[in-house]
Amino acid sequence: ADRGGATMQNPVFIPGPTNLPEFLRKAVDMPTLDHRSSAFADLLHPAIAGVRQVIKTREAEVFLFPSTGTGGWETAISNVLSAGDAVLAARHGMFSQRWIDMCQRHGLAVEVVEAAWGAGLPADRYEEILTADKEHRIKAVLATHNETATGVVSDIAAVRRALDAAGHPALLLVDGVSSVGSMDFCFDDWGVDIAVTGSQKGFMLPPGLAIVVFSARAMQACATAKLARCFFDIRDMGRSNAAGLYPYTPPVGLIAGLRLAADSLLAEGLDVVFARHKRIADGVRAAAGAWGMPLCARSPDLYSQTVTTICTPPGFNATGIVTRAADVYQTAFGTGLGELAGKVFRFGHLGQLSDMAALSGLAVLEMCMADLGLPVRLGSGVAAAQEVYRTTAVQPMKQA
Ligand code: PLP
């Protein structure tokens, strides 16, 4: 395709799939390996062990399905619930909405708590509802850790506290698709029962793996759950995992890549990785402030470190910025989703991103906004981000 004279592939600024680090791109590109041989077990078991460490669990079961985050949602609900079961969920963005929709299509009775798109999960409302549910009709509580549509992170520990305060035995099912590996996720400490993520976000791999983690309680619930499941049945996957096998043909390259991705995150140090994402995100947020554009996330405690959702002035079509960036400057950003369509654009900063890349993304956005007549001074957002990056550089330049 004509790339407008561009001679290099630009980084992407979408909130997943992320830019691929070169060593992971190479790891995924491997010769065919017999997945019935012990060589496959040598890839699978360390990949599973690595996920356990990244998600901070000692003993939970890890399942790797050839799928995506959406398949991970389906794995979670279909293995522990039965048709007609009540489920508690908050709707505060497009991804929490899609998981609710999936539950409804599976015949679950979803009690939906409406919250503003830009607000976090209302754990206090959860506590009231769980406390009132004396008969324990609610079998599962859903939580979206990082709403990729709004750029909002929610407090999962608070959801666990709500369950405990109500003395309620419902399982805690958490969508960590756009947080795990980039933001702290404490599976054991938060008392999570099922966590879901995918290969193409914090693990910086191509899409193709649903990564799903089950607590001992979730494993027990699987024995009595009656929702139909076959491809995503963790009983088949669990038996195979134990033998170092797979119930069907595994995406071997992705599993090899997952092992390396987890190793690299752990070698860098999870706290260092999380701080790196926050620092890049701080620069992007500073740029939005310089442009006079509010964030969708309503308060700093809700700021996502993996995606920033920026509101454009009323009456302006925010999608025009994303379209122009793609068509004229060959650079990808995220559009507004659902009720935010046309009102916001999204800057994804998860996975591998440098100061230089983030600054170039901000510069492209400024060109698009100026082209489209928004009163944004070229360089203003870039300068604000530069101030953040130069004052927080990990190895500041020594003064002469
Ligand atoms: N949940 C969240 C928070 C997401 O951001 C996404 C995708 O962006 C999904 C679920 C769905 O994942 P997938 O597109 O991999 O099926």
TrEMBL record:
<protein>
    <submittedName>
        <fullName>Aminotransferase class V-fold PLP-dependent enzyme</fullName>
    </submittedName>
</protein>
<keyword id="KW-0808">Transferase</keyword>
<dbReference type="GO" id="GO:0008483">
    <property type="term" value="F:transaminase activity"/>
</dbReference>
<dbReference type="InterPro" id="IPR054863">
    <property type="entry name" value="AspGlyoxATase"/>
</dbReference>
<keyword id="KW-0663">Pyridoxal phosphate</keyword>
<dbReference type="InterPro" id="IPR015421">
    <property type="entry name" value="PyrdxlP-dep_Trfase_major"/>
</dbReference>
<keyword id="KW-0032">Aminotransferase</keyword>
<dbReference type="InterPro" id="IPR015424">
    <property type="entry name" value="PyrdxlP-dep_Trfase"/>
</dbReference>
<dbReference type="InterPro" id="IPR000192">
    <property type="entry name" value="Aminotrans_V_dom"/>
</dbReference>
<dbReference type="Pfam" id="PF00266">
    <property type="entry name" value="Aminotran_5"/>
</dbReference>
<comment type="similarity">
    <text>Belongs to the class-V pyridoxal-phosphate-dependent aminotransferase family.</text>
</comment>
<dbReference type="InterPro" id="IPR024169">
    <property type="entry name" value="SP_NH2Trfase/AEP_transaminase"/>
</dbReference>
<dbReference type="InterPro" id="IPR020578">
    <property type="entry name" value="Aminotrans_V_PyrdxlP_BS"/>
</dbReference>
<feature type="domain" description="Aminotransferase class V">
    <location>
        <begin position="34"/>
        <end position="282"/>
    </location>
</feature>
<dbReference type="InterPro" id="IPR015422">
    <property type="entry name" value="PyrdxlP-dep_Trfase_small"/>
</dbReference>
